[in-house]
Amino acid sequence: MKIGVISDSHGLLRPEVAPAFAGVERILHLGDVGKASILEELKKIAPVTAIRGNVDQTGLCRELPETEVVMIGGRYVYMLHDLGALHLDPAAGKFAAVLSGHTHIPNFYTRKGVLYFNPGSCGPRRFQLPVTVGLLEVGEEGGFEAKVVNLDCA
Questions:
Q1: Which regions of 1-154 does DSSP assign to beta strands (E)?
Q2: What is the pLDDT of residue 115?
Q3: How many Å apart are CA 45 and CA 42, to the nearest integer?
Q4: Radius of gyration of the chain (CA)
Q5: Residue 106 to residue 104: CA distance in whole angstroms
Q6: What gap in Å lies between CA 121 and CA 24, rounded to an integer?
Q7: Lower Cβ count inside 10 Å, N or C end of the chain?
Q8: Bridge partner list, 55
């Protein structure tokens, strides 16, 4: 199973996102969507679960939840925009992964058996940061593998 993970689109859905998400079964948007039309375009690729980011203050994006819990491959995944706002112990809560955005810096690591994954930003380029999305793959034994996909945007 392959899941597309996206964050910080800020109203821009680059054409490189669709090929990067080819074959995904689901897309998780981690906030700062910018425009509801972004979610409609992503739904053409796969079903979408989205949360609200700090810039999602107007329109339909304002109605998105701040956090979400989804089940992927039989394991719980916690979604929030800003990891700094995490007010629970994911390991104690039996979460397999915590997905966040906000920083525009792609990274992933494991702590206390929990995968923390930030796919970076696929919206307007900020500073010298790469333009990226993420893929979350579920292995045969239920483990998660995170991958950052550089969109090589000019």
A1: 2-6, 26-29, 48-50, 67-72, 75-80, 95-99, 107-111, 114-118, 132-138, 144-150
A2: 97
A3: 5
A4: 14
A5: 6
A6: 18
A7: C
A8: none
Q: What is the mean pLDDT of each run of 10 residues along the chain (154 residues)?
A: 97 96 98 97 98 96 98 96 96 96 97 97 90 93 91 75
- How high is the pLDDT of residue 154? 56
Domain ranges of the chain: 2-150
117, 136 Cβ separation under 8 angstroms? yes
* Domain 2-150 falls under CATH 3.60.21.10: yes
For residue 101, which of 76, 133, 72 has the smallest C-alpha distance? 133
Please give the Cα distance from 51 to 124 (Å, whole number): 19
Beta pairing class for 75-80 and 67-72: antiparallel
